[in-house]
Please model this.
Amino acid sequence: MTLSRDTQVTAPALELRGLWAGYGATPALQDVSLAVAQGQFMGIIGPNGAGKSTLFKAILGLVKPWRGDTLVFGRPSREMRAAIGYMPQIELVDWDFPVTVADVALMGRYGPLGLLRRPAAADRDAADQALERAGMLPLRDRLVGELSGGQRRRVLLARALVNNPRLLLLDEPMAGLDAAAQHQLLDILAGLRAQGATIVMNTHDLSCVSSSCDRACCLQRAVVALGAPHEVLTEKILSQTFGIHLLTVHHPDGSTYAYQHHHIGDAPEPSGLHHD
Amino acid sequence: MSRKGLSPFLAEGTGDVPPFFPTTYVGGRVGATTFATAKRQRPPRAPMHLITDPWHFEFMQRAFIVATLAAVVCAVVGVYVVLKGLAFMGDAIAHSSLAGMAASFALGGSVLWGAIAWVAPASLAITYLSRRARLLLDTTIGIIYAAGFALGLVIISRQDSYATDLFSFLFGNVLGVSWTDVAIVAAVAAAILAIIAALYKELLFATYDGAMAAASGIPVRAMEYLLPLLIGFTAVASLKTVGIVLVLALLVTPAATARLLARRLPAMVLVSVLAAWAAVIAGLYLSYHLDLPSGPAIVLVSTAIFLAALLLSPSRGLLRRRPGISIPVP
Model:
């Protein structure tokens, strides 16, 4: 994954300008503007329903923005599909499907291949290389239903990597993973960054953002705060973002933890994939 | 072999038969009288003739061809139906096609053309209404189901031969297919298989993970219209073999059998086709020799094959040894 040195080398990997998007008449994103420089690792945090997934969907063209621009390496994101690798939430994938790990990785090549063209040996090689980078090559012939939670993330990551994207969008990659599986995934992401990839991740995991990301964004339909994790992950900002009082603890190693004083029922994230 | 007693079933020379045979349904039994009549013409035969006997009759040859075509398309499309949980959609489109069949029949045309003319807009309407009116797919499927079936019943009720016509629509009449019917079913089947072969990877990706497929440029929305259309035309191809009530069985049972036995999708398609084909051939022989109605015989053989797979499946079978290590749970 080498960064091609073209004319847009100085453009941000991802830039959103005044982005509005929503479902029906309800806005899920209100005037979101942010930029992620090339090579950065940004963590986007916010409660359920804050528009985190909608942000990705708007970039990917799955949700039509009401207004505003989504630029990837300085160009409209719809023209830059091949440069974006997307890893959906694992809940959106049918894990009981009769496909193997290698089949799923190969699916990443289907779109660029275009209609009526069948995958060739080169596509299978690319899929195997992506599996290798995600540490899944030894399991290539397993059915996806036989994988653990961490392995499921990594097969989706492999599929996102198969076209050598320069920008990776990861939707809740850490949710439900134990510490060991999280570290394994973060190690892989660190390796990808070393090769020049820009990564944007949605997460609920504040400590993960604090320890691994170099940029953090708090989203609550609008951008609440944007900056280095230690500037953003403060009690005041987190309380604004999550709408409830949070106690944050900054540990000496730089990690930040937030504790909820009381639990409020999570609003379900609006899903506009099927009926909009 | 004398064909004297078979009239009107076998029209000598043309090989053509009228679409429906009231005599076929005497006493509410489909096909029974015709087989009995046919076999009374000949002395008992050696066991080998149990296999070859039916082939002496042109109507059985046509039945074998049409049933094979229906089995193959049902088996292939059924794989997507089973994996996506679209059984209700298949049942609904088949039932709603009664409107097209009845209208065409009332106008003196071929029921197959009527069914084709109906299922195309009805299948597209299911997805379109669900999108435009923001209704669940299940809801719009139910509306099309009931509306088409009711319209068909109203049209048939205006005909003189209400009961017998309805019976042949609902339960099929594979022994009464004409060569024209065979040609129509063959064309429909070929079109379905060609589309699936051409769009295999798109259908696979869109079925497995629609959001990601859309994000990577697969025309997922077009696929959401295409799949009901394929299911609708599959129902048309199977109308003559099992009738609209039992199309669902041919659509889901062989594919479900394959789900139990196959690991990957290509293998699942192959096993599904073999299971469906075995069911229609064995069902037709049983129907011939035991004087059983052919559609139900096919469905029961298909169910028996499924039950065998359910017992013996290496991964999901009821008789398999429980694994020592638990499979990870999501």
Chain A touches chain B at residues 57, 60-62, 81, 84, 86, 88, 90, 92-95, 97-100, 103-104, 107-108, 110-113, 115-116, 118-119, 143, 145-149, 152, 159, 273, 275 (CB under 8 Å). Residues 179-194 of chain A form the longest helix (16 residues). Chain A is about 30% helix and 25% strand. Chain A has one domain: 14-260.
